[in-house]
Amino acid sequence: MTARIFFGGMATMPDINNPLIVQSDRSMLLEVDHELFDACRAAISRFAELEKSPEYLHTYRVTPLSLWNAASSGMNAEEIVAALEQYSRYPVPKNVIAEVREQISRYGKVKLIKEDDGTLLIISNERAFLNEIAMHRNVQPFIEGRRGDSIIVKKQYRGHIKQALIKIGYPVEDLAGYDEGAKYGFNFRGTTLSGKTFGMRDYQRKSVEVFHASGSREGGSGVIVLPCGAGKTIVGIGVMQIVGAQTLILVTNTLSIRQWKNEILDKTDIPEEDIGEYSGEKKEIKPITIATYNIITHRKKKDGDFTHFDIFSANNWGLIVYDEVHLLPAPVFRMTSELQAKRRLGLTATLVREDGLEEDVFSLIGPKKYDVPWKDLERSAFIATAKCIEIRVDLDEELRTRYGIADDREKYRLASENPDKIKVIERILEEHGRINVLIIGQYLDQLDKLAAHFNFPLITGKTPLPEREFLYAGFRTGKVPCLIVSRVANFSIDLPDASVAIQVSGTFGSRQEEAQRLGRVLRPKPDDNMAYFYSLVSRDTTEERFGQNRQLFLTEQGYEYQIFTFEQYRELAGTAKATILSR
User: What is each CA distance from 311 to 182, 247, 248, 316, 582, in whole angstroms?
Assistant: First the structure.
């Protein structure tokens, strides 16, 4: 007897030709070579996480966090179940449907509110939830007791209790509101200082509105996820304007401070004297202050106090913006747990964290509020169309022998620094020309050798800031056609003219880094709007295996890696570009 499935008010049957297999362990197998692959991936990626992406079957998993993020973005259980049933080849296991409904129901069932007298309360319509919460040992340090059907929270522990509750399976909807902060209004320019007509794109405006939620308690904290090149800085400035308050912006490095400042000056009427820099070089507190994570986490000795923690109370901030929120260092998490009365905006291209602290981003910054698939923006030409290519390079006999007797860490380094990668770079440069090319790597010795061999300028963490700015500016104008960069270029640099990136080594299996590095070439291009992202890996080594993990996040976004051996790529002399584009 064939099972019948009901959704959307209609009875339907599972279709044996559908692309998705939903399993009782909450994993899902999605067939790649299927006409409904793109539509199905777009639907399930809103509430499931990609785990593995080999050639023919991708594995997704439904988790509590993925479901809570879906709930916070407005999805309900019936929409999720309907999507599963629409694309599933077989009947969706009943325990999966039950889990979806249970976890979705948990988001918002426990709320944090503030009484008129300032008392913080945990409330719920489910008395059993409250009893379990009140008795849990991980929660008890942060509560004072009960008030009727509510739990009284110690005022200074608003963030701590949210962290504790999410870890025991009760995501809190924080409706306790925010301090308004000192007012600060400004306007966008219709024409930028550089003379270009300016207006926010539809998705940028929508993300601002979703975050703000008309100023209600439901808005005011959360994360906006947009690919590199899609204008996350513009979204941040848009939120600053709609909130209309003095703002603290936290960024990854001093160069990012300058880029944020330049964007603010170019596109708003905020005067330069109202923008402060708080870094190793300057200590300015202004209505709009931009500070680095490094200076925030500085302390004179390992176990000492954070020297500059007072920046959080130096002004009556109405908004704190966390740029590249996926990179938040642990001390900033701890500081943020005490800043829950401030509106908080996280900006990122990916919420993936290799340390598994996505739950802390959810509880302390806020849930994912808005996300746009990268391929959607590519189709609209808001970001470049990117081709991802992996070229596998053999180790020579001597290096293979050294590799065979090395320990795991040394194996990875030997594979990453394979000298024969130079030959591959030479061939890629022959194909694409020596203009608008970034070579990105992890190991400084390797990058020094590449810089000497190709006579390209090199930027590392030791490069003085004025020299970095000079070289980046030269790259934008074409005076510096090629750059070699270390990990400092993984994030928060604006290189709109980069059209080819060659990754020669990376941080083990970091999906986060892979996404950021592709982002270096995604900014839209004036002509064919094409970008090429090459990864060079040593064949049959740990680097190749780690590379498969690095590609996971981009695979979820719809990117496919074309894989060549060096011999295959070399044989395409003069036709490699055309071959890549035709696939």
Answer: 15, 12, 9, 10, 53
Q: 398-415 pLDDT, tens per residue?
A: 999 999 899 988 999 999
Task: Say if residues 292 and 254 touch (Cβ distance below 8 Å).
Answer: yes
- Compute the distance between CA of residue 171 and CA of residue 190 in angstroms, rounded to an integer: 41
- Same domain (yes/no): 234, 357: yes
**Residue of 340, 329, 250, 263 whose CA lies nearest to 297:** 329
Same domain, residue pair 96 and 129: no
Q: Which residues pair with 31 in a beta bridge?
A: 57
Same domain as 411, residue 323: no
High-pLDDT (> 90) share of the chain, %: 48
What's 459-524 look like in SS3?
Answer: ECCCCCHHHHHHHHHHHHHCCCCEEEECHHHHCCCCCCCCCEEEECCCCCCCHHHHHHHHHCCCCC
| Tokens found for residue 211 | 């975050």
- The pTM of the full predicted model, rounded to 2 decimals, is 0.83
**CA proximity to 243, closest of 303, 162, 183, 194:** 183
Instruction: Record the tokens describing residue 448, joined without a space.
Output: 């020094």
What is the domain extent for residue 94? 5-106
Q: Buried b vs exposed e over 544-564: b needs ≥16 C-beta within 10 Å? A: bebbbbbbbbbbbbbbebebb
523/497: higher pLDDT: 523
Q: Which of 62, 87, 106 is the last residue of a domain?
A: 106
Residue 494: pLDDT band (50, 70, 90) is low
Phi first, then psi: give them for residue 248, nearest 5 degrees.
-105, 125
Say if residue 492's pLDDT is above 80. Answer: no
Query: How many domains does one find in the chain?
Result: 4
Query: Looking at the structure, do residues 32 and 127 belong to the same domain, yes or no?
Result: no
Q: Are residues 115 and 139 in the same domain?
A: yes
